[in-house]
Structure formats: structure tokens, C-alpha cells
Write a structure and sequence with these properties.
Length: 304
């Protein structure tokens, strides 16, 4: 029986070699998308108060997903309304830790020092000072709280508002963040409210909020910033689309928008790089030839 076993292993090995060769040929011909230069630009390690993902596990998951690396964009939400969460971290400690991680995975994965900065009007100056004093590669500007309420809790913000009122006020605050802050590179997950709104229909279509979305996107373009395509909608509460929706991304393109980052918003290693292939294919069909990541706060364009 031993020769049969050896023969089976030999045949399986041949099949794997053939599959690898077919994949490589497909990439060269443009039939299969090569993700090896793509960076997951939104992930949270256990330096974020709401994440237990170990950075090592995140990097290994990125490699397993076939992508080139990831940016650890841990949370900084100054004066966050929910006092149960302390959304800050020791910046120096994490910086040194990520330097060590870079050395460990040198030549295997690109590891970037990111930050997800939560906007509130009264923290702008303090946030800008923190960004200036630290060695972040990349900063996402996000809105997680509006009018002193978190968006991730059903109570508070949503009381006394119908869906249109809640979504419109949120989008107004996203616009305020683009206007009021300069220390960010891209605006994160436009449509974040969809993940938590109590409505059965949590869609956020461009046509329903055209005026305010145009204001946001035009200001992003005017300031030379970018937007994030956040794939958490595919693994978070079954939204079934990225955040923002593709129709909003199409409008961004129409208005002259060029810089897009793609990020999983993973708080668990298994979601790193999630749904990147179909999203990148759709972005290409919209007319985007490149996605972006940032290194030392400078954009790097990667061909799709």
C-alpha cells in the first residue's frame, strides 16, 4: 500500500504545481487579480479598546489572504461619549512594537502605523497636535459620535429621529469633519451609521442624500484627500455592500476623486482582507485603475 500512497501524494503535488502555474499565468494575462501589492488599510489590533486581535495574527491573516500587508489603524476617539471605552493608546509603545513586527516580517509583509481618528468638533486642535507629534504613516478621519452621542448604541442619538433625520444629521457631521480637520488622509466608512441604526432598512443610497453627499465628496476632492472603501459591510451585520455604497463611490469618481483606500475594518484576524477581490473588481469596472495606501503620510498608488 505504501507505493499507492506515494503515488497519490506525487499526483496531488503535480496538481498543486499546475494550479499555481495557471494562477500565475492568469495574473500575467490580467484574468486573475494579483493582490500581493494590496494593503488592508483599516485594521485594529489589541491596542484598540474594542479589539482583541493580536498584531501577529493580523499579519499572518494578511499573508494567508494573499495581500501585501496591512495598516494598524487603532482608535483615537478623544472624549468618547461612552466612558466604558478608552479609545486611546500608548503611541510610543505601539510604534516601537510595530518596528519590531516590521523586522520580524521583513520581506514578507508591509506593516504600516495607522490611526483612526474619531472626529468631534471640540477635539480638533488636540487631535491635530497628537498627529503632528507621532510617526503615523496614515490617518483615517471617522465620525463615530454625533452631538455627544455614540452611533453604536441604539439609545440616545436615534431617539426622536426617523431614519432620514438620523442619517442626514450624521452626514452633516461627516461634512463638518472634512471641513474642520486637516490632519487626516482619507475619510473613513462614509455610511458608518448603517452598521448600528435601528431601522430594518439600513441602506444609504446616493440619490436619497444627494445634496449633502455631494458636499462631502466635493470637499474631499478640493482638499486633495481620499475616501475609504470599507468592506466591513460584508461581514458586519449582513449589510451586503461596502461602506460607502458603490453608487457613492461612482459619484466620487464623477467629481474627480482619485484616491481610494480599501480596508476591512477588522477587529478579528479572520476578517483581514475580507471581500477584497470582488470589491476591487467592481472598482475597476467603475473606472478606478489604482487604489492607494499611505507611507509616511504620502500616497502610494497600486495598480488594480
Amino acid at each position: 500500500m505504501r507505493p499507492d500512497r506515494d503515488f497519490t501524494i506525487f499526483k496531488c503535488g503535480d496538481i498543486l504545481l499546475l494550479l499555481n502555474e495557471l494562477v500565475e499565468r492568469g495574473m500575467k494575462l490580467g484574468l486573475i487579480m494579483n493582490l500581493k501589492s494590496i494593503i488592508d488599510c483599516h485594521s485594529h489590533s489589541n491596542y484598540s479598546a474594542d479589539s482583541q486581535m493580536l498584531a501577529h495574527d493580523g499579519v499572518r491573516s494578511a499573508l494567508g489572504a494573499g495581500i501585501g500587508g496591512l495598516a494598524f489603524t487603532d482608535h483615537l476617539d478623544i472624549d468618547y461619549p461612552n466612558r466604558e471605552y478608552n479609545y486611546t493608546f500608548d503611541f510610543d509603545h505601539r510604534s516601537k512594537f510595530l518596528d519590531e513586527l516590521r523586522n520580524e516580517f521583513s520581506g514578507k509583509a508591509k506593516i504600516l502605523k495607522g490611526l483612526e481618528l474619531g472626529f468631534q468638533p471640540h477635539i480638533i486642535d488636540q487631535a491635530a497636535q497628537i498627529v503632528q507629534m507621532n510617526d503615523f504613516d496614515f490617518v483615517i478621519g471617522s465620525v463615530h459620535a454625533v452631538d455627544g452621542y455614540t452611533l453604536s448604541e441604539n439609545a440616545g442619538y436615534y431617539q426622536g429621529k426617523n431614519k432620514q433625520q438620523a442619517y442626514l444629521r450624521y452626514l452633516e457631521e461627516v461634512y463638518n469633519s472634512v471641513v474642520g480637520m486637516d490632519c487626516f488622509d482619507v475619510i473613513g466608512h462614509i455610511g458608518y451609521i448603517r452598521r448600528y441604526a435601528p431601522d430594518e432598512d439600513r441602506s444609504l443610497q446616493f440619490i436619497d442624500y444627494r445634496d449633502v453627499l455631494d458636499m462631502i465628496l466635493k470637499k474631499v476632492v478640493d482638499k486633495g484627500k481620499g475616501i475609504e472603501v470599507n468592506t466591513s459591510g460584508y461581514h458586519y451585520k449582513g449589510l451586503g455592500t461596502p461602506i460607502p455604497n458603490f453608487d457613492i463611490i461612482e459619484r466620487y469618481k464623477e467629481l474627480g476623486g482619485e484616491m481610494l483606500t480599501i480596508g476591512s475594518d477588522s477587529h478579528q484576524a479572520r476578517y483581514v482582507g475580507n471581500s477584497f477581490m470582488p470589491v476591487l473588481q467592481r472598482l475597476k469596472s467603475i473606472g478606478f485603475n489604482y487604489v492607494t495606501y499611505f507611507e509616511e503620510r504620502k500616497p502610494v498608488f497600486v495598480k488594480i
